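Item description
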Amino acid sequence: MPSVEIIIRVIAFLLLFSRIPYWLFTRKQADKIKPKKQASTHQGRLSRYTLYLAWTFLFMQLAGLQLFSYPSNQILQVIGLLLTAAGVAISILGRHNLGMNWTHAGESQIKQNHELVSSGIYSYIRHPIYSGVAISYVGGELVAQSYLVKFFAVFFALTAYYQ
């Protein structure tokens, strides 16, 4: 029987991975119904690929790659799993509330017939997708038991502060 640590890692991996099909499906739908006013820029693609690289490293850590690991701590792993679940839920809810108005953040553009969304989770959290992604990433690093959690917690806090 697999250890509790492995079960927590698998659950966190599946939670984080579950967001991907939803993102891809809703992106395609949103671009079809409300097309972008301009094509993706080099900066937008670089931003997107950097994010993909960070997620790839997190998925690899959850699969067993040890990067800057600290001694095993199941309490921190459980906290990380809860943060991962909360972050995924917040980001998906934010994406759902945006509906067809969503564009990738790195593209910084307004869509045709763009509308300001201030209902649902947006009435409580200004940037629920960013917040959810940050929370789930920090949670994933806790599950992976990596000291990188400190770096990403500070990085996301500074990013939120300067937004």
